[in-house]
Predict the structure.
Amino acid sequence: MPINLTKGQRIDVGLQQAGIGLGWSPSNDASSEPYDLDASAFMLGESGKLVSSDFFVFYNQPTSPDGAVRSSGDNKDGEGEGDDETLFASLGSVDPRVVEIIFVVTIHDAKERRHNFGQVRNAFIRIYDQANGQEICKYELDEDFSTESAVEFGRLYRRGGAWKFEAIGRGHQGGLEALLALYS
């Protein structure tokens, strides 16, 4: 039975092949400009920074150098039910220098289009077993990020040789550029 997480809650993942599904529904009533949200992963070392720039996984760099994290690709409209974008993690293959993987969603061209996460509804992150599709946990973001164009949804991190997941739900202004500055 999947666990519904609250912000800050942590659980033991217990998987080697994890699917990280991210979903959202943009409010097309709020803007005439189309919404394009993008899921990314920052693979961080002990310093809290990217191990190297190659360990930033996104639509233009869809696979980490160790092959452990890969992106499903870019969904440009967020239409339909379920996961809008997915990242896949082979946790047993993650470079040993990586101690945490942060999963974020950013709004492409947010400033130019005057978009923010206050115009996005039904945002979630879920962890599931790639082998059978069974959902392990889900975190539904319920905050109104009315000035933020980037949100850290959750993170996988190593503790005592095991991978754990934490629901984060932390917004940032400045979009992807702000997160790159923070983690580079």
